[in-house]
Amino acid sequence: MPRVNKTDAKTMLEKHRWQLDKVKQQLETPKGYIRLSGPLEHDNIVNGDGLRAVLWTQGCPNHCRGCQNPETWDYEAGQLVKLDDIKKELATFKGQAGLTFCGGEPFVQAEACKEIADYVRNELGWNVWSFSGFVYEVIKENGGAPWELLKSLDALIDGPFIQEQLDLSLKFRGSRNQRLLHLEHGTGKILSVE
Questions:
Q1: Nearest 5 degrees, angle CA 152-CA 156-CA 104?
Q2: CA separation for the pair 140, 148 (Å, rounded)
Q3: What is the largest CA-CA distance in the chain?
Q4: How confident is the model over 26-70, as pLDDT tens digits?
């Protein structure tokens, strides 16, 4: 097993603490609302297995260099949408296998995303995936609303986009550092990693 020198270990620990601080900073919205960067999509085939609805969240603290959606970073941009209106619209989408949360960063609006995730699973019978610039370990260690959202997922594509590791051959990912984690619904346990 390769050794990590003290300087690299210190840098990794500082980066981990910095990520924990960022995931704790939840975007505040009025109860019953979520901030979206654009309209809901349906029949999407590039953000998870099967035909999928996609919800594009607004607000991201990660600001990855080369991000394909930098317009989603601003916490005050986009629009506030009622969760009930989203649920009604999702119910009109026929033939979808599931819902994928994209962004922005879904985990900074964890409570609202979890409410939507629970709705599509329980009422529509869909599976739920999410992208996140945070790694699984940081979400788990933080706990709270982000961990509760993660436990409601079937899959998580985790990790920041790293332009130097761009790899267009990867399924559902943009850079080699990102992982596709298949999760046990309800516990958040990792079942397999791609």
A1: 95
A2: 9
A3: 55
A4: 888 999 999 999 999 999 999 999 999 999 999 988 887 777 887
- Give me the residue label for tokens 């990794």: 12
Cα–Cα dist 47/99, whole Å: 9
CA 28 to chain CA centroid, Å, is: 17
Question: CA quadruple 114, 98, 135, 152: dihedral positive or negative?
Answer: positive
Give the list of residues 6+ apart from residue 115 with CB closer than 8 angstroms, or none: 83
What is this structure's pTM? 0.89
- Rounded CA separation 139/129 (Å): 15
Condensed to tens digits (0 to 9), the pLDDT of residues 116-153 reads: 999 999 999 999 999 999 999 999 998 999 999 999 99
**pLDDT of 11 over the 90 cut:** no
Q: Which residues pair with 157 in a beta bridge?
A: 131, 180
Yes or no: say if 121 and 127 are a contact pair by the CB < 8 Å rule. yes
Cβ atoms of 42 and 53 closer than 8 Å: yes
| SS3 category, 147 | helix
Q: Is the pLDDT of residue 14 over 80?
A: no
77-93 mean pLDDT: 97
**Residue 86: helix, strand or coil by DSSP?**
helix
Judge whether 183 and 191 are in contact, CB under 8 Å: yes
How many whole angstroms separate alpha carbon 188 and alpha carbon 19? Answer: 19
